[in-house]
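User: Here's a chain of 294 residues. Predict its fold as tokens.
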Amino acid sequence: LELLDSTKEEDMGKWSAKLEEDIKVFHESIGHMKKASQDERLLEDVEFIDPVMSIVEGLKNDVSELEAAAKANQKFQTIFGQQLERYPELDEVAADVNLKLSMWEARRDMFGTTESWKDTLVMEMPLKEWDAQCTKWYKVATRAERELPANSLVPRIKEHANIWKNLVPACGELKNPTLQERHWEKLEAICGFTFERDPETWSEPFTLGALMAKNIMEFKDEIQKVSTEATQESVLEEMLGKVKASWAEAEFQLANFKEQKDVYILTGVDDVQAMLDESMMTIGTILADRKSVV
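Assistant: Prediction complete.
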């Protein structure tokens, strides 16, 4: 038993020493990975991006392998009773590679995807889905601008993302079902062109591409304001409609006044009075609103 114990301790010592040597080599591998991740081609905008995508995707795979190896090293260190080795440099390299991959994926997806969006009719666009995607692209560009060295790629991605981040919401406001003709006239006065919405009469389809060509994204805030007014006015119109409907359906009971055949008075006016009081309160609310349609 003593012999077995001594042999076991000797083997553990050998394996522990071997692990320490492997960890030193592992740190060198991290250094090589860091150098590879600084490849200048990863920050240069190019027309054909497939070669660069292959490079950055390869780096991502290599980083994943290093992260798996780091966990394995720590597992063995736990077995051998060693202090766990930390790899802050690997964390930095992984963050850098992941950001560059996200940046190039945005570069690939954004320019291709938005080109197909241009042919979509405004009334058929999936607003929430596209708005979320544009926000994601913009966040990637903003983070890359903040964390990466100055380069030619990030400004182009951010500029394109910013255009669509404003274009999609601006066009989305035009889908507001509460927009009435008076609102469209106001929008046309703001934007300086006519919104040709009728497929029977338009000179070109009412698409995102057509509105983008007219720089509608520059009027996003004004369009949003008109759309909000339309929604608020719609609520007031609905309130007024209910008042009108209640009086249109109201029933009045008449009775002869002092047994005179040709003179009548209202009877049972309590319900009528209650409805009148409620209607006056509603009308007061409508009139109190600065955007009242009354």
